Amino acid sequence: MSHFVFPPLPAAHVARPLPRLSVVVPAYNEQEVIAETHRRLRAACAAVVGEDFEIVYVNDGSRDDTWPMLQEIAARDGNVVAVGLSRNFGHQLALSAGLELCRGERILMIDADLQDPPELLGEMMARIDAGADIVYGKRSERLGETAFKRGTAAAFYRVLDRLTDVDIPTDTGDFRLVTRPVLEALKQLPESHRFVRGLFAWLGFNQVALPYVRQERFAGETKYPLKRMLRLAVDAITGFSTVPLRAALWLAAIGFVVALGVGAYAVGSWLFFDTVRGWASIVGVIALFASAQLLCLAILGEYIGRMFMQAKGRPLAIVREVVVQASGQSR
Ligand code: UDP
Ligand code: MG
């Protein structure tokens, strides 16, 4: 029930039978790679499911020739759906818009820059055939990324793991194959700040990791400068943790201990040394009230955290299956 506004969909799109596989590809300023991406994606899909697939490209308000190129690809290739957003909304929302529209029985999410090899599709499909609901790519190695990017990413995933109760797998991105029931569950999460890989982790189901070597970008440069990475990190942490709101509680506890210490010291110096009159009481009172204020903030934090989580409007739990005896059978 996430909110996207779509124009009336082309009749030809609605009339198509539901494909076995959908591939959702967000693209922002990817004119250097998009033709090659399409060539390799199409070949990888055809190798696994024949012609029974659709590739949904979501143009995230590119400023270069990505959109005209996508329109041209869609005109040429009957398996392509080109979706153009009205402006740049960011990777996670572009991906979500594509997920909203795609119709396949299984859904592959992949970046447009060929860092995640489309040829792994066969192996991912095999894991789902073997009983998995979600197969996510786990980067065992990252080629062609700066030490800074690799370092910050590694640190980020570990901090995130510490802060959240949801088990968000480390070193994974949005390269992931899921089944339709999983996607339908995901679409019931209406929150607007979306950290998609975290949302999939939150859903549960039977999740399986597929280790792979993350390749160098085929061409062009990263669309995730530091500022966007930070925003993603904040979305991730606030999306799945209220731990930062509890920081005040720890500060209050520390402040209280300090207040006791300072109070004792102040009383001691008042008794045994010659101090300025009023010093002891002022220091003691300041320390005590500071920790009382922090305690109040911590209490507010607890309530705000609960309101915040409730405001996300997530379902309370997800029922994976319901089993009864097939009708007509005896006891
Ligand atoms: N992307 C997008 N909108 C944005 C930024 C990125 O749709 O505002 C797409 C981009 O085209 C690519 C994917 O998100 O398909 C991941 O971006 P990128 O490869 O630049 O990130 P990195 O791999 O460097 O983290
Ligand atoms: Mg990339």
Secondary structure elements and pairings:
Blueprint: H1 11-15, E1 21-27, H2 34-49, E2 53-59, H3 66-76, E3 80-84, H4 91-101, E4 106-109, H5 121-129, E5 134-142, H6 147-163, E6 172-179, H7 180-186, H8 196-203, E7 207-214, H9 226-240, H10 243-272, H11 279-311
Helix pairs in contact: 10-11
The chain binds uridine-5'-diphosphate and magnesium ion.
Characterise this structure.
- With 331 residues, the protein is α/β, with parallel strands linked by helices.
- The protein folds into 2 domains: 4-241 and 316-323, Spore Coat Polysaccharide Biosynthesis Protein SpsA, Chain A (Alpha-Beta Complex), CATH 3.90.550; 243-312.
- Helices cover 49% and strands 15% of the residues.
- The chain has 11 helices and 7 strands.
- It has helices at residues 11-15, 34-49, 66-76, 91-101, 121-129, 147-163, 180-186, 196-203, 226-240, 243-272, 279-311; strands at residues 21-27, 53-59, 80-84, 106-109, 134-142, 172-179, 207-214.
- Strands 3-2-1-4-6-5-7 form a 7-stranded mixed beta sheet, sandwiched between helices.
- α10 packs antiparallel against α11.
- The longest helix has 33 residues, at 279-311.
- The two termini are 41 Å apart.
- The structure holds uridine-5'-diphosphate and magnesium ion.
